[in-house]
Request: fold
Amino acid sequence: MKPPPLILASTSTYRRELLARLGLPFATANPAVDETMLPDESPEDGALRLSQAKARAVADAHPSALIIGSDQVACLDGRIFGKPLTHPNAVRQLQAMRGRQVNFFTGICLLHAPSGRVHCRGVPTLVTFRDLSDAEIERYLQLEQPYSCAGSARSEGLGIALIARIDGPDPNALIGLPLIALCDLLRRENVSPLQP
Reply:
């Protein structure tokens, strides 16, 4: 039996590049979801809710597909660090995180659109930041301009120089698409990159 089409509900080039590593054919769709956290929502709950919302947002346009949604929330001492969007916000985020350990919690959802079945998983990644000077932060932001990345840290680029240590179950989660968890979720729908 032919597996359903696979849709990545994301416009992120980094998520697209990660998913391509599995060798499965897929298309992308823009979920256009408001990523604002709800009042009193935990980072974990927010990431899981938004990953599911992204998958559901494209389901009407792809009613026969398996849809992947993913979202990431950075948190330090209960404070959420979303996408900074501006240079001053990014400076404040990185100053607050320098020399500290931050949880980058990634939610992933696989939606079987025909049946409405949903599989979700949360993947924490603890990132210890170097004790960066203001000049180093400024130089990084000038070169990388990571204003659309949670916590202003684009680890798939120059942001790796900000980091002293990464602890987590999936090295891809920090970039935004935990492939180990995704492979588990896909197997629940009888899809595997290793199937002949």
